[in-house]
Structure formats: structure tokens, C-alpha cells
Recover the amino acids of this structure.
């Protein structure tokens, strides 16, 4: 029998049994388990908690950077796997593309099987009061991942019963039109909205406002401005969310996990064996002169020259997002074997491009490093606990700032600009936190610029470029300096790179994926 990663569900139903609430545990769904387990709210919530962390690792770690920020011109990267995303020369054999595909179809598979099992449990007399909200959580995750799938690949498979497909041996599943993939995602999010609670006592668990917010984002992507505005307004009117004052703090300390700005975050844990459960952005972004015996740092991703030129003078988000000459963090006091380095860092971490490498200096290709999701050199050195490549900070995938900017853009709609008071209030709330002057008129280009710097290095800007349409995306991309501090470089962008290719390995297992898409509905 052929093995097809997107249709298998960890051996269909053979996963580990667990009653833990931890986000990384994976429960069994066989018939014996359904008879004897998932009889309490804690047991059922333990099942759906598995969707919040571990399954996202393959996308969140590197594929998210490569696709969301290297490809969009926000990040510069070396090595072999990432530069093709900057130069638009990536192929279907890309490891980043394969990783993203596996993650989203794995989550889609888990949620599908969970929903089937929970419906079966209800049929056995299971308690609807806690089973139905769990099913709604699954609908949210399935809707969210198919929203990603529709934006990343355009036309793509939709699989709602991977267990049945695996057992049947029929893997000839086609790609469906992007409009159908996005419609499927929206239908899932509507089911989540209807079934999720208004609030949840456990920080980080989904509520219906997370579903409304994700729907607003999808409606905006589809240029359905009326519905985007309505859903964003519902989140705003709920009064459950707000911007937090410390923009930088959201991204360099896990004490801000599940803060009042976060609608949906990947949940992380630090354990004695944190691989997969820990956040691994700290080493991929952290500067090499911040490395200690507790925290690895190899700066795989750094800010591009173009994003450095995108910040307005006085924008407080720059220091919260980027380390560059003069950037300091007094609480962090890293040490290594070099006494000159230790003297240089004695009063706290300094980002210095003049000091000699090894003595405390750092002088990379763009003379800068990403500050977001870098939590420091480890607990011994004034930061928080870091275990090698792993930290415990959550990764936010939907923030209240996004809702405010979605609302402002949706008010403009198909127009060019607006002076609408509510749209201005939403837009200027984001700018005010950044320390910038408010605007009395805003255009779509204003919002696109604001979104770029607000969500820099959060894996979102590619989707903002993509939804502008090819002509405008090409115009923006080909003006971006994607070179180094020494040599400028400007890319060429062609239409074939608007969406990612299906991974070559998947086509080998399912030749239907290489054929023209068909309708799902």
C-alpha cells in the first residue's frame, strides 16, 4: 500500500493514550478507549489540547519564516534551503514546502479523526455539554489550516476522513479549486463560531471570538469587505481584547503568553525533553554574540535591508522587532570564555557592529538581527529559562492589532481611502502604541505599510502581498532591496510563484495532484 502523509493519521488511529491536559499529549481513539474514556470534560479537553502545540512545529520552525517573511522580503537568510524563497527560485523539492504541507494536512487529519470519534462518543451517550465545544475547537483548527492551505497552494486537496482513505487504499484524491478550499475553511470557522464558548477559564483556549477574528481575516482575503468589517466589529465590541502597552515584551518574554492581545497562539512548554513542545525561534533569530552554554544562537534569519528601510522615524516597534547598532538589554548578561567579551557585556547585552567578533561584537550581512521571539541567553544570564534551542514563549498567530487593521481596511473596501471616524480610531490605535502621529485620512497603501511593520517577522506579510493581486505584488516585490549592507539586490517576480508547488514527494504518491483542479462542491 502507498504511504501518503496527508491522508494518514499517525497510523490512522494508533496514537498514544493519555489523560493529561498538556498541549503535547496525544490520546488514543480506538473503540476500547471510546467506551471507557472521554467521560469527563477534562478527558475531552485533554484530547483537543493536543492541537495547540506539537503539530505546528514543522511549519512554525523555519517554514513560517521562509514562506511568510523571506519570500515577502522581510527577512534575509543564508544556507541552501531559504535563499530560493528570496530569489523566487524554489522548487517542489523544497524541504520548507514539504514541511508546511505535512503540518497542515496532519492537523487537518487529526481534527477530522477527533471529530469522527467525538461524534461516535456522543452516540454512545457521551455528554454533549463538553463534547460539542471540543468538536467546535476541531472545526476551528481545521478551518484555520485550510485557510493556510488555500493561501499557500491555491488549488489543493480537501480530506475530511483520512482514516477511511488510508484503510481503503484509495489515494487518488485531486486538488480542488482555491475558492472551494477557502469556502471549506470558512464553513469550518462558522461551525467553530457557533460552538465555541464566549470565554474559557484556561488561558490560551479558543473562544468564539478567535473564530470571528479568523473569519474576518479570511473575508478580507476574499475581498468580502462587508463581512470582514462585521466580524472584526464583533471582536472589537466584545471588549475582551486590547493592545498591550509593551509591544517588545510580547515577543521577548513568556510572561506575556496568552495576553489580552492574543486571540490565537501556538502553545509552548519547556520540559526535560522539549523538542516539538518548545519554541525554537530563539536560536534561528538570536545573534551569535548572545550564545551561552544554556542558549544556542545561530541567526539563520535576519532582517532584510528592505524592512529596515520600512520603519518611520520614531517607530517604537523597530526596537521591539530589530536588534541593531546601539540596541541594549541590560537584564541580559551573557558570558563566555573570553574575558574581553565578559567585560564588554558586564552591564548587560549590547548589540555592537564595531566591536571585534568574539569580543562582543556582531557584524552580519545586514548588520541587524530579529528581536521578536528571542528570549535571551538563559536564566543564569538574566533571561528566562532556555534549553538549548527551545524556549517557552508562545507564537501568536492572530492578534488584536490584526483585528483593528482588518476593520480599517474593510471600511475602505473597494475604495481608495477613508476618513471614517471608526476606521481611523482602529488604525490610529495601532499607530499610537507605536509612538507615531495619527492620520486623518488613510489609504489601502497606508494600511499595507502599517501591517508590514506591525507584523514583521510574524509570517504574515507574504499573504498581504499575495492578496494585492499579481500586478501590484510584482510592483512592490521588484522594488525591494533583498541584498546585503554592501551590495543591493532586487528580485524578479513571475506569476508562477504566487502560490507554492505541491511537494514532489506527494505527487509521486498521488499523481492526481499533478492534474488540473476540479470542483469540490
Amino acid at each position: 500500500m502507498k504511504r501518503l502523509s496527508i491522508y494518514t493519521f499517525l497510523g490512522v488511529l494508533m496514537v498514544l493514550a493519555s489523560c493529561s491536559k498538556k498541549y503535547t499529549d496525544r490520546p488514543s481513539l480506538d473503540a476500547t478507549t471510546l467506551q471507557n474514556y472521554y467521560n469527563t470534560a477534562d478527558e475531552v479537553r485533554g484530547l483537543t489540547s493536543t492541537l495547540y502545540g506539537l503539530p505546528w512545529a514543522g511549519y512554525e520552525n523555519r517554514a513560517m519564516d521562509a514562506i511568510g517573511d523571506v519570500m515577502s522580503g522581510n527577512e534575509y537568510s543564508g544556507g541552501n534551503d531559504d535563499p530560493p524563497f528570496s530569489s523566487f527560485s524554489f522548487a517542489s523539492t523544497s524541504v520548507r514546502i514539504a514541511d508546511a504541507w505535512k503540518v497542515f494536512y496532519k492537523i487537518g487529519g487529526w481534527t477530522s479523526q477527533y471529530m469522527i470519534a467525538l461524534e461516535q462518543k456522543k452516540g454512545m451517550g457521551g455528554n454533549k455539554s463538553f463534547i460539542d465545544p471540543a468538536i467546535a475547537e476541531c472545526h476551528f483548527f481545521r478551518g484555520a489550516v485550510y485557510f493556510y492551505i488555500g493561501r499557500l497552494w491555491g488549488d489543493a486537496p480537501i480530506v475530511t476522513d483520512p482514516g477511511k482513505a488510508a484503510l481503503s487504499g484509495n489515494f487518488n484524491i485531486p486538488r480542488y479549486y482555491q475558492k472551494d478550499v477557502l469556502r471549506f475553511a470558512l464553513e469550518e470557522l462558522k461551525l467553530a463560531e457557533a460552538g465555541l464558548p464566549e470565554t474559557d477559564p484556561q488561558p490560551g483556549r479558543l473562544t468564539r471570538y478567535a473564530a470571528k477574528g479568523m473569519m474576518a481575516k479570511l473575508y478580507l482575503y476574499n475581498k468580502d469587505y462587508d463581512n470582514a468589517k462585521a466580524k472584526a466589529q464583533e471582536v472589537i465590541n466584545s471588549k475582551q481584547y486590547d493592545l498591550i502597552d509593551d509591544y517588545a515584551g510580547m515577543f521577548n518574554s513568556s510572561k506575556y503568553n496568552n495576553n489580552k492581545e492574543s486571540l490565537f497562539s501556538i502553545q509552548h512548554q519547556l520540559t526535560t525533553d522539549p523538542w516539538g513542545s518548545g519554541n525554537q525561534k530563539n536560536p534561528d533569530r538570536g545573534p551569535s554574540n548572545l550564545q551561552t552554554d544554556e542558549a544556542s544562537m545561530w541567526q539563520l534569519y535576519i532582517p532584510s535591508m528592505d524592512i529596515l528601510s520600512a520603519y518611520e522615524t520614531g517607530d517604537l516597534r523597530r526596537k521591539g522587532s530589530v536588534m541593531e547598532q546601539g540596541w541594549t538589554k541590560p537584564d541580559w548578561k551573557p558570558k563566555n570564555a573570553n574575558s574581553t567579551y565578559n567585560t564588554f557585556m558586564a552591564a548587560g547585552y549590547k548589540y555592537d557592529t564595531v566591536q571585534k567578533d568574539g569580543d562582543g561584537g556582531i557584524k552580519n550581512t545586514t548588520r541587524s538581527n530579529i528581536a521578536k521571539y528571542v528570549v535571551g541567553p538563559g536564566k543564569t544570564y538574566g533571561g528566562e529559562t532556555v534549553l538549548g534551542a527551545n524556549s517557552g514563549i508562545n507564537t501568536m498567530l492572530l492578534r488584536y492589532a490584526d483585528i483593528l487593521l482588518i476593520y480599517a481596511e474593510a471600511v475602505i473596501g473597494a475604495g481608495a481611502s477613508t476618513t471614517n471616524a471608526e476606521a481611523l480610531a482602529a488604525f490610529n490605535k495601532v499607530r499610537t502604541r507605536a509612538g507615531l502621529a495619527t492620520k486623518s485620512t488613510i489609504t489601502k497603501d497606508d494600511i499595507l505599510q502599517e501591517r508590514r511593520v506591525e507584523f514583521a517577522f510574524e509570517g504574515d506579510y507574504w499573504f498581504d502581498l499575495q492578496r494585492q493581486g499579481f500586478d501590484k505584488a510584482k510592483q512592490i516585490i521588484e522594488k525591494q532591496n533583498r541584498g546585503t549592507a554592501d551590495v543591493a539586490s532586487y528580485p524578479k517576480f513571475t506569476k508562477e510563484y504566487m502560490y507554492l508547488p505541491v511537494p514532489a514527494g506527494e505527487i509521486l504518491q498521488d499523481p492526481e495532484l499533478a492534474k488540473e483542479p476540479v470542483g469540490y462542491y
Remarks:
- The first strand starts at residue 75 and ends at 77.
- Residues 1-27 have pLDDT under 50 and may be disordered.
- The CA atoms of residues 252 and 260 lie 16 Å apart.
